[in-house]
Fold these 3 entries.
Entry 1:
Amino acid sequence: MYSAVTLAPVSSAKPFSRRLIVEMSTGVTTTTAAIPNRLLAVKPPAHPTYDLKGVIRLALAEDAGDRGDVTCKATIPSEMEAEAYFLAKEDGIVAGIALAEMIFTEVDPSLKIEWFRNDGDPVFKGLQFGKVRGRAYSIVVAERVVLNFMQRMSGIATLTKAMADAAHPARILETRKTAPGLRLVDKWAVLIGGGQNHRMGLFDMVMIKDNHISVAGGISNALKAVDTYLEQNNIQMAVEVETRTLDEVNEVLEYASINKKTSLSRIMLDNMVVPLSNGDVDVSMLKQAVEVIDGRFETEASGNVTLETVNKIGQSGVTFISSGALTHSVKALDISLKIDMALALEVGRRTKRV
């Protein structure tokens, strides 16, 4: 049982600045607000230009506008402190804990945050999984930005976990269908949920898709152009090509048999999962393509991937399954941050949300 909200004068300690170089998953680094190492259960993916701290500042700035939080200024004495608890209102996988700490630190480095769960851990409806203590004004100013990130990331991680479990032994990937400006955040959530990252952007993998093939005059021409470009520019990089028919798969294999030094490493099998009128899917074409490729290249199934179909696709023998829905159709996980926890629980029980 939790007591009513307690407010007290804030300590006289002055806010201080903290900066840390956070190691990214592939060795690339970025300057961010300080995150204790214990919170980095899953490191953010690498990106050479992405400014995570800048994204946090932009989110806070769009909320503050040119006046700041006028409601907090009017109602919350600057010298008061409070304690607020994170409350899960539904079951899922929590994500964004490390990012939340960065946001709180950006708003007020004197805030003290304690977590009872780590990124990637399951939470259930009614669980209090973290708390923050310090200036009440700072807590409330940071609240919505923290929750916006955490709810989105937790929603992505929750769906990713379910898809990754169902897809086994195939591995689940997201795509570039992420929210503009949130590419790294969305892909970080996929990692937290147990998925793997596809290419981060246009710069870290060659991916020959249908439009490239059309402009180049065919798959063989596109592959040859890529191999030539990479060799001339002394670039070593993974190459994937999209195929939509078994004839295209065979054309790719024929090109590779002639061009032994090709950089091709993965073949996408696009829309070879055929939906049926009864809600099931036919994966016979996909299996046939996998058998023809016979382990010479990684394979990736794409198209008609849902939580209901991913298990059957995963049994086809493909290496990877990519799903844009992981990030473009995310359902946020319901999480709140409450100072008066007793009242929050009372209301939650009334509305069946805790």
Entry 2:
Amino acid sequence: MVALGERLSLTTEEEVGVDLEDGDAIELATGRSSYCLMGTVLIRKRYNKEAMENTPAGVWRPVKGMHMRVLGKNLFVFYFFHPVDMQRVLAVDPWKFSNHVMALWEAQGGKRITKEDLYEVPFWIQIHGLPPDRLTSGTGKRIGEVLGRFLEVDDGGGDAWGEEYIRVRVAIDARKPLRQGMKLSLQAGPIWVDFRYERLLNFCYCCGMLDHVERDCELGLEMEKQGVTDRPYEERLRALPKYMQRMDETSGERWLRDAAGNPVAVGVQRG
């Protein structure tokens, strides 16, 4: 056994630190390409790494081009040659690969990357079920701060009246199950509000995680073994982005009628 004095000596040695210079770090910026996004795919199964090299470029289509570098297992850095190309990618939440969420964050020189950074995924989350007088940016901010790292709130241009919900943009921790809703305490009594996630991709209906689907879930195996058919999570967690809803609202279909005054379904042929 190691003597107590030797153990104390080892502990003392372990306390000796090392000052790292900037040159010891991975150099993310290369040549003209100093605009970098680091990314990881929230998926447990193996995936085609060659496809990873080509798919993002084909989807993002940066005007000035881009290239990718593998930093480690399921860790990538995407280089852009113009800041606007990079910001256009960051402006859309979230991106996907193989129908799974791709977490992205801006790589900044000197900033320490933590596990929390790796698993933060921004979502626009719709909050349904609020009373009309609570459809405010203040309400959205308070709820958003509980859901994760609050980023912004869409208050409908300062007037949420006439809206059925409010939207908050929050960076959630993808290591945790999706939250389906929340109980709020009001003077008139407690209420329940539902959350719906815009651009929500694959997720598990058994446990609510983003990194796998039901057939790959250990809880799902047990539920199937016990004959449980009801799932804790449902499709209703998905929501169309607001701009797509507005496209539907302005299509004119809701006002169209036939000669007899009956609603007309656009695109449906009548015999």
Entry 3:
Amino acid sequence: MDVFLAKATTLSCGDEDEDVLELEADTKSLETLATTAVLGRLLTRRVFSVSHMKDLLDRVWRSIKGWSLQELDTSLFVIRFEKKQHLDMVMRNKTWMLSGPSGALLVLFNWPPTGNWDKVDTSSVPIWVQVHGLPIMFMTQTNAAKLAAKAGSLMDIHNKGQEGIMGWKFLRFKVLVNLNKPLFTGCFVLCPDGGKVWAQFRYERIAALCYKCGTLGHDHHWCISEPVLVKNREGTQVWKFGSWIRAEARIRDCFSSGSSLL
């Protein structure tokens, strides 16, 4: 044991100059990667091979040619583009649904300037959110910030800086949403007359949303969870999550749909 400790002490990091090696950094390649590569996280409950992902992305990115995909770690990939305009095109959305039935969602992140992809926080993504159903008197910047805190970390408010009433139909803000948690779908808001109104949160440009558990990355057909329910004013339970969480939905809110999954 004493001999082992003696050797460990001799080889300890930094004690000897010969244990320190200075390497040459390829900064040019790092700069190139920063403008031609993105980091992708695949959210799914199924196993996808790299070749299958390429086939699916070929269908989604029909107009984009000259890109490559390489697996870095479980559910993490580097995607490189020959043209920067193609990278900019896919990053405008940042979330891409690869196939309907599988419920797989690819979330894209900027490639880090340092190249240390394993240090990138892939647990959250910025999403614009609309809040519908509020009386006009509640559509202020202060209330937008309060509501945004329920959905995630506030990043921006539409019409920020405008005093008084900020909108006629809905409030809009951008938040950093935790991908590992259910989306915040809405809440009751107390009115001055003692009544309550339902503030329905609607998320822009989202894909692969589970209508049972409310998380992104899989379809409700693949979810083993029981659906989350909420009671309306009459005490009837309805599904809390559904198509009404999407900004483009025609259904006003969860109470307008009953338990429908339309």
